[in-house]
Design goal:
This protein is α+β, with helices and mostly antiparallel strands. It contains 2 helices and 10 strands. The protein is globular, with a radius of gyration of 28 Å.
């Protein structure tokens, strides 16, 4: 009974074109080729969820920031943004991780100076991570000619539940001109280790 059922199934399948994600394969005349083809399809199907999970691992946190520049006869105002925290990381003002960072106000900056801000990053996920901390979306765009954002984070691994103190720095050129207020986003990209 099983043998005749298998033969009928193979006979029907061998006459049909096989398609995987819109790619049609020729009719398969021999059982051996059908088995190889079915194994290949099963392998691709089993790897697809793993590939989807791998691409969804990388997260990003964006912290808005802003401030003013104390230029002679200048006027400015501070600006900021919203913090969007992905699952797995927290950015806090205190080492007890109770006061989360909503935005960073760099205050009024003197030309030729560096302003430092200390935050605490906590790995709240279930695996070790590393970070990539960068500045983006500068406004006005000309600010990038006069200001440099950096941090003392050097790519070290942050284990699960570990808290790391990070110093963020904003250095302003002594020849900055025509910019009285600014804003930019601090992007914290999270990569699994």
């Amino acid at each position: 009974m099983c043998s005749s059922l298998r033969k009928s199934f193979l006979k029907v399948v061998s006459r049909l074109p096989i398609s995987v994600h819109g790619v049609a394969f020729p009719r398969i005349e021999k059982k051996k080729h059908l088995v190889v083809m079915l194994l290949a399809v099963a392998l691709v199907a089993s790897l697809t969820p793993a590939l989807v999970n791998f691409t969804s691992i990388i997260h990003s946190t964006v912290i808005g920031s802003g401030g003013t520049v104390d230029l002679p006869f200048g006027f400015g105002f501070g600006s900021g943004g919203t913090v969007y925290l992905p699952v797995g990381v927290g950015v806090y003002w205190d080492n007890n991780c109770t006061d989360s960072v909503k935005e960073i106000d760099w205050g009024t900056i003197q030309p030729g100076s560096t302003v430092n801000v200390t935050v605490f990053v906590k790995n709240e996920g279930n695996r070790a991570i590393s970070l990539n901390i960068t500045a983006e979306n500068w406004s006005p765009l000309e600010t990038t000619s006069y200001m440099t954002f950096s941090s003392n984070y050097m790519g070290q691994t942050i284990n699960v539940r570990e808290i790391l103190q990070v110093t963020l720095s904003l250095t302003t050129s002594s020849n900055i001109e025509d910019i009285t207020s600014f804003s930019f986003d601090i992007s914290v990209d999270i990569n699994p280790v």
